Amino acid sequence: MELNSQYQLEFTAYDDQSVAYNSLSVEASVYWQDQEYIVKQVASAHSSGVNTIQVTAVHVAYEVSRVRQRQVKTGTLTYSVNDVLAFYLSGNKLGFTWQVIGNFDKQQITDLGNSSGKDMLSKIASTWSDAVFWPDNKNIRIYQHDAIAKNLGNRIDYLHNTSEVKLTYDSTGLVNQVKVYGKQKENTGTDSDKTEYYFTPFLVTDEQSVKQWELHPGDDLSDERFTDPNAMRASALAKMTSDPPLTIETSEQRAGEPALMEIRRLEIRPSGFATQVEIVAYKYYPLDKAKSTEVTLNNRAKTILNYKKAGSDALDKALAALKAQRKAILQAAENSQRSYDSRLAGTPVPANKKPQMAVRAAVSRDDLPLYTLKVAGDNPDFGLPKGSQFAVLTKAEGVLGLAGYISNWLTNNNQFVFNQIKNLIGTIKGDPGEPGRPGKDGNDGHDGQSAYDIAVAAGFEGTKEQWLASLKGDTGASLSAIALTVDGAGTIVGGEVTLDNGDTLPVKINQKGDKADDTTDGD
Asked: Which stretches are tagged as biased composition: Basic and acidic residues (predicted)?
């Protein structure tokens, strides 16, 4: 089915020796869904012992082409749609009737007649652009567009109920400017070669189309119906193809026959395209459930505008992505240049100095300088001018092989190292002495005063917190370095601790102390 041009059936019949099969011939009638079709083509085929007939049958309404109106209404006259139908079909002997549904304006037609019923339909479609031919058997029905276009709530959703949507945008026939000629005046003078018109021929231009697509001139347009230049202008603008037509084709997986001129919502989410469309043609396969229904949708102005907007939005997104990509490339190039300009050159610490450096770093800090570096170019990130030298510090536990120089007790801060050494020194004890004689029980003590009370009694003035603060001594010397002696079995057997004030503290491992003195009786 195609709007105003085609309404037919096609099918293949298999030879079952029935009367129906043998009745399939040209001009035979076939009925489907209460509509009559006239067989126009049959193609017999014989293959592998199977006989078939391929049949093409056209809706009976197109038999109106057999109606012929030989009379002519001379001149340019004003007609309604009903006037045209009545002029051709009144009194026909083929049983055709007519019906006009909706409201149409009257239009001018020149020299109507001397043509067939099919020409009548073409004349109506070309004169009234909003006319829709949708027959009911031999009842020739002409609908005004808005009287037949209905929104039934159905939609076409790409990747939901259709897997394919094809949009064809074609500017081949684009025309936005023509020169128009109206009705000629009858020549009443002596100069028979001179042609005069009711108005001077002029150019009609669709300015909006020219602004959008640039100028696309078309062939001259002549129409003897018009003596008014304004009416001629309006007619020319209506006939121009001032926007490239948009054809939308899709296949849908849904049951039921589509309805001609049904309004549906078309949505292609990946492209951001959504609009209202009308079904202007379809191919429906009611007896073959494996085949999807093929639908052709209209190219209304609003549909084209939505298509343009979706394309414009897609272009904007692509340009934005390209701009972001270009920015990223420039940033990467700038970063690369800065990295090259700020590159560092280093000299590794000799291997024979690493053990000493590792031990020294273990005590002095948790970072380990292993490389002396030189700045090859100004490095603003580190605030280093070209040519300056510096040492890179790294965490002790992050240096491969460091465990070979110091034991696992080395940690991330000096306080922890100090605590380890203190604990180590605390393990140095002598052998226990001989037990002393038990002492006698002492006298009961008296309730004493707190140290703070004694201090106040001795003349101290201030709060307890101030008194406690006054008891603090000066800060002692900090731990500067430690040198440990390790035997072949990896056991620490001795060493020396050096403080910042220069004092040294020997570390002795597993040595016995002097024998303790005998205890005496207590008081």
From this structure: 431-447
pTM for this prediction:
0.53
Can you tell me the distance from the alpha carbon of 423 to that of 226, in angstroms, rounded to the nearest whole number?
116
Query: In the beta sheet, which residues pair with residue 162?
Result: 158
- Residue 252 has a CB neighbour count (10 Å cut-off) of 21
Strands 221-222 and 177-181: parallel
Residue 112 near residue 120 (C-beta atoms within 8 A): no
Task: Report how far Cα 188 is from the mean position of its chain's Cα atoms.
Answer: 71
Residue 2, beta-bridge partner list: 6, 281
Q: How far apart are CA 27 and CA 41, in angstroms?
A: 9
Residue 283 tokens, joined: 């191919």
Q: Regarding beta strands 139-144 and 202-205, do their DSSP bridges make them parallel or antiparallel, or are they unpaired?
A: unpaired
- Each residue's pLDDT expressed in tens, for the chain with a length of 523 residues: 777 778 999 999 999 989 988 889 999 999 999 999 999 999 999 999 899 999 999 999 999 999 999 999 998 899 999 999 999 999 999 999 999 999 999 998 889 999 999 999 999 998 898 899 999 999 999 999 889 888 888 888 888 888 888 888 788 889 999 999 998 887 766 666 678 889 999 999 999 989 988 999 999 998 888 889 998 998 899 888 888 877 788 887 766 788 888 888 888 888 777 888 888 888 888 888 888 888 888 755 444 444 444 444 555 566 666 777 777 777 777 776 666 555 555 554 555 555 555 444 444 444 444 455 667 777 776 677 877 766 555 555 555 554 444 444 344 445 555 565 556 555 555 566 666 666 666 555 556 677 778 777 777 778 888 878 777 766 666 656 676 676 666 666 677 777 666 777 776 665 555 555 555 554 4
Asked if 179 contacts 221 with a C-beta cutoff of 8 angstroms, the reply is yes
- Type of residue found at 305: L
How far is 260 from 132, CA to CA, in rounded Å? 10
Q: Are strands 202-205 and 177-181 parallel, antiparallel or unpaired?
A: antiparallel
Residue 259 near residue 132, CB atoms below 8 Å:
no
Q: How many CA atoms lie within 13 A of 307 on its CB side?
A: 21
Tokens in use for 361? 């770093």
CA torsion, points 6, 175, 263, 107, in degrees to nearest 10? Answer: -70
The tokens 């076939």 sit on which residue?
A: 30
Sequence letter at residue 329: I
For helices 354-364 and 414-426, angle between their N-to-C axes, nearest 10 degrees = 90
Closest by CA to 512, choosing from 434, 393, 429, is 429
Take residue 245 and report the two structure tokens written for it. 């037509």
Domains of the chain (ranges, CATH numbers): 1-144 (3.55.50.40), 177-239 (no CATH), 344-402 (no CATH), 413-430+475-513 (no CATH)
Is residue 40 classed as helix, strand or coil in its secondary structure?
strand
